[in-house]
Amino acid sequence: MPPNFSRGHFLKNSMDLLIFQAPILIVQASMDGILIGTLFALIAYGMALQWGVMNIINIAQGELVIMGGYVAYFMYMVGIHPAFGVIVSPIIMYFVGVGLYKLVINKVVDRDLFISILATFGISILTQQLMNFIFGSDVVVAQSNFGTTMLFDNSVTLPNSKIFSAVVSIIFAIALVFYMKKSKLGRAIRATAQNARAAKILGVDTEKVYAATFGINAALCGVAGSLIAITFTLHPYVGLPYTVRSFMIVIVAGLGNLPAVAISGMGLGVFEEFADYILGTEFRIGAVFLLLVLILVYRRFKLSRKREYLK
Amino acid sequence: MNKLRKFILIFFSAIALILGSTSISFSKVVGDKIILGAAVSLTGKYSTNGKHTQNGYNMAVERINSMGGVKVGGKTYKFEIIYYDDESNSGRAAQLAERLIKQDGVHYMLGPYSSGLTKAMAPVTEENKIPMVEANGASRSLFTKGYKYLFAVLSPANQYLEVAIDLAVEKNGGKPVNIAMAFEQDAFSQDVRLGIVDAAKRTGSKIIIDDKLPKELNDMAATLAKVKATKPDVLVVSGHSKGALTAIRQIAEMKVDVPMLAMTHCDASKLAKQHGKNSEYALCAAQWHKELSYKDDYFGNGLKFDKDFNALYGYAPPYQAAESAAALLVYKDAFERANSTDKEKVRDALAKTDMETFYGNVKFGDGGQNTAKPMVLFQVRCEGDTCANKLVAPTKWASHKLVHPIPKWSER
Fold first, then answer.
1. How far apart are the CA of A23 and the nearest CA of chain B, in angstroms?
2. Is the domain of B173 the same as that of B110?
3. Do the beta carbons of residue B34 and residue B80 sit within 8 Å?
């Protein structure tokens, strides 16, 4: 029989594989999705925070992530274990973030959304080229040598580097929630997010709050970046997918709602894995975008019904 | 104020005019120099390979000039190259091709780095009837458009991994094999895929996984889980450096056992260095390897080229540099056979090229692709902690025997 290369054939095959031949793949897909989703949720949380407080959509989010990754890679190159990047990278990236705020962002905070998108787009191009200039255009990886956890008689494999990423992401997210609730700066940030003018009148130095918020966002990107250095690959030009994905998670979850960000991050991760198994890898990213469109349409639909009700 | 502005305007127009007119006289041949034009990626995402390309060109120019130059019509000429940086951007590459031809009056072009940029430049050179010898655009679609002025010294992309399938069938006792494959969705990788599909049809082999990886993707876990569940005989992966590095990382992490793993871009991604032992036994396609026994008068052989290149630039030449150097040898040969600097005559001489270089034999097919040189395969092998690429196929030049099947992860 001649081999069959048609799409329908593969679709039937992949469903067959997933449901009958190797149902264990469902476990594998779910675990992979949750672990990656947690990491994306961390990046998205930074974006949501900074979007909520400053009303800025940061197109350079992905570049901040990659820059954080290069910090870990640099440590790896000089002989330090790249996992320590999750401590060093946020510290460095915090100052990078504050620096960027002082240089560019503070000039666009109260302006039109379009201007801030343009400004951060500029930052994104500039950082890409700078990273290319400093680190070269080669694709690089940092080795963690963490090994692998095998489950169910070796049929489900979980790379320890991914488990490490998820755990670190969760720790940082929880720490941040506490910080926002308990600390003075956290309260000031929340107050500014609710009403910047009122906060200013009541004595909050909003300028400082904005700088700190952008710094915290960059620090979160730094953590995520150093995790990406040990789980995936780094390259000066691969930032955009991280921006797009965190944007999507924030759109789905809404601003300033950490549990929703975490759930939508993991949900998207799992959805992506299953789309990969069932539709094929080429539709993986397409499926996520389709989902985004459906969610936006649904939201609009709900909104219009509400308006009618108000009438 | 107005006067000053007028003066500045006239001043700059005059300069522009002078520059313009000199560059027109600054055409194909100036004095004893034959001017070649090239746009290479010195910045942007291809800058590493763009640099390799430029180094290969420069080394060959120096070598040819110092060894007597090019003899045309009883006169000796030297090569000189005008470079521009295409910023790894195909729009820019097409613009620069226009500029080289229209403003700088270049009559002979060298190729840029990558299939995408070559595809952008080829229509321009074709329209202006300017011959282009290129060394870094392997995409099959370059050679099916009926271009008359495009010549590639390298093997087309669909040939990259066909050999691997033949090898797998041979190792399987001549019986068809089951193939799993994952290719990035770009022109080059999809051409490699077509080659595999052809090889599968030819050998009666079955393709059981055929994943196309989106460009943004740096996670192959789902594909590899499918591979684990279906146990193919061969896994083929092609997705530039990112694909190669991601595949090796995740195959090692997920302990995926396959008898044969065939890939592209192991060289460009420094796979053996970056992943060390995890990359062992990966089978890689390459245009060239220094241990091949081809010879020429200018560089001697591959080993000598490797040594000289290392002395000049301080790193071992990847095949991108070797093929770029070979492009100049092809030009020199064509000029001397044409015995003229007329671009049409040079073009006809190029089409009749049949020569041996240190990089391999060069003979162009109707579409401009090199039909005389086979692809080679090497396998990553480790001694202690240092891993290197060892030549395993074709058997004629093999320095090491292919390890097949790949030992299971539990036994490594």
1. 10
2. no
3. yes
